[in-house]
Amino acid sequence: MNAIKIIRVAEGKNSTLSHLYIGGLFCCYLLEDSIREEKIQGLTCIPEGEYGLSLNPWAGMNARYGPKYPKLHEGMVEITEIPNYQLVFIHIGNYHTQTAGCPLTGSYWQRLDGDYQVLHSAAAYKYMYPLLVEEIRRGNARVVVENRF
C-alpha cells in the first residue's frame, strides 16, 4: 500500500480539487490546474500515475520558504519522475492561477464562479510539510495520483 496519495475529487472550469492522504489519513485539500489530454505549460495538472517525492533545497522557491519557515523548511517537497514536467512542488496558494502545474495546499475549499479555491493554505502547508518530510526520510518517497470523479 502506498503511504501517500493524491485523490482528485472534483473539477472546475480551470481547476481540480484533490485530497492528500498520508498513511491512509486525510491530511489536507490540494488545488491543481485542469486535467488536459495535452499539456499546456503552467496550465495543466500532473497526469495520473505514481511518482517520486524528494526534498529540493536548491530551487528558487527556497529563497521564500526558508526565511518564512526557518524551523520547518528543509527544502521544497518536489514531485519527481513526471514525464514532461519538472520542478513540481507542493506549496502555498489559493487560486488555480497560482499553481503553474503545482498542487497548492488548503485547509478547506470553496467553489466560486465555477472554479475551486483552497483557503487557509499556509496552515495546511505547515501541517502537511513535516508529515511528508517524515515519510520521505522513512523511504516512503512515492506518491500515487488518481482521478476519482
Uncertain runs: none
Give the total of beta strands.
Answer: 11
Backbone shape: globular
Question: Whole-number radius of gyration?
Answer: 14 Å
Strand order of the largest sheet: 6-5-4-11-1-2-3-8-7
Main beta sheet: 9 strands, mixed
Pfam families: DUF5675
Organism: Parapedobacter pyrenivorans
Protein name: DUF5675 domain-containing protein
Domain DUF5675: 5-132
Note down, in words, how this protein is organized.
The structure is a single chain. With 149 residues, this protein is an alpha+beta fold. The chain has helices spanning 62-68, 121-137, and strands at residues 4-11, 15-22, 25-33, 49-56, 76-80, 88-89, 91-92, 104-106, 108-112, 115-119, 142-147. It has one domain (4-147). It has 2 helices and 11 strands, in the order ββββαββββββαβ. A hairpin with a 7-residue loop joins strand 5 (76-80) and strand 6. The longest helix is centred in the C-terminal third of the chain and has 17 residues, at 121-137. It is globular, with a radius of gyration of 14 Å. It starts with a strand and ends with a strand. Residues 5-132 form the DUF5675 domain. This is DUF5675 domain-containing protein. InterPro entries: DUF5675 (IPR043732).
